[in-house]
Write a structure and sequence with these properties.
Length: 313
């Protein structure tokens, strides 16, 4: 049986006010007006493509994603250009139980593997820079408008995963701070994964504190483009967001834009995306360009924390 705990999926939202979702994994694609039905169709297509030998199943089980912005200096033919890209690194286990971080950039489908999370992001940035060596600005502009959502899905056949909740990891003066905004809990360490592990130990001591904030399905990450009305101009800016499918009596989606420090909720994905855009727009209404640029310099890492009871008595 073809089994993996998690596989990566890139989902494009197309169609404007009447959206349709195109989901991709490797060479498999599916399309539907509903986000989750698109993923269900993708799962079926992946199984079909794997069974027919169209491509091979990855040797990795993806444990969880880490999503951030990767800063690069592109050596274009027209001159060097500073540009950030959406980057996603998956904590992954191979068939021998060895941990790796598999990173990818959905804008240009570049990827790599590394032993640590930060090395994975660093190397991905170098690969992106090499990709655009001697390219023209117009070549870059054709790819940059892509704003895919990143999520994961499973092929079935494995036991239920440990419950999770959304977490932000923030660089702070040479260290990293893992934060659960909903629970007002945090932990600091010298690396992102160490900080996350410390936070998970805090949650393990009293997992009941996470009640009502557990993700009911796979987390969703991605960029949103927001038209800002600034003090002296108009500006289209891209912000990193997370979408957390939650349930506390009723099902809802909780959107968070950490660079703007705002949240929004809705009972639908489309509503959550629109509401978080509105919240960002309101936050920076009549702000200066310098204030916006300062906010967008933040490089949070969006991920999840596992919530499991401690084995300690």
């Amino acid at each position: 049986m073809l089994t993996r705990a998690r596989l990566d999926a890139i989902v494009y939202r197309v169609g404007g006010s009447n959206p349709c979702y195109v989901s991709e994994h490797d060479c498999s694609r599916a399309k539907d007006k509903d986000f989750y039905h698109s993923l269900t169709l993708l799962k079926s297509q992946v199984r079909s493509d794997l069974s027919s030998g169209f491509y091979s199943l990855s040797r990795f089980d993806y444990v969880r994603p880490f999503v951030t912005c990767i800063d690069t200096v592109l050596p274009l033919r027209d001159g060097s250009l500073k540009q950030s890209f959406l980057g996603c690194a998956y904590e992954a286990m191979d068939d021998h139980g060895r941990r790796q971080f598999v990173s990818m950039c959905p804008t240009n489908y570049l990827s790599n593997e590394a032993d640590t999370l930060l090395d994975s992001f660093k190397t991905l940035g170098e690969i992106i820079e090499a990709r655009y060596l001697d390219e023209r600005v117009n070549d870059l502009i054709r790819e940059l408008p892509r704003a895919p959502l990143i999520t994961t899905f499973d092929l079935g056949g494995k036991k239920q995963r440990t419950p999770e909740l959304s977490v932000i990891i923030e660089p702070t003066n040479g260290s990293f701070r893992a934060v659960s905004q909903e629970l007002s809990l945090s932990a600091t360490a010298g690396s992102p994964c160490e900080a996350l592990n410390k936070l998970e130990k805090v949650l393990a001591d009293d997992p009941s504190v996470a009640r009502g904030h557990i993700l009911r399905s796979e987390p969703i990450f991605g960029p949103v483009d927001v038209q800002l009305t600034l003090k002296n101009s108009f500006s289209l800016k891209r912000f990193l967001i997370s979408l957390s499918p939650c349930q506390n009596g009723t099902r809802y989606y909780r959107a968070h834009a950490p660079q703007a420090g705002v949240y929004a909720k809705s009972t639908t994905i489309e509503g959550a995306l629109q509401n978080i855009k509105d919240a960002i727009s309101l936050k920076f209404h009549e702000a200066t360009q310098a204030e916006v640029d300062r906010a967008l310099k933040a490089r949070p890492i969006l991920t999840t924390a596992r919530v499991s009871p401690s084995n300690n008595n």
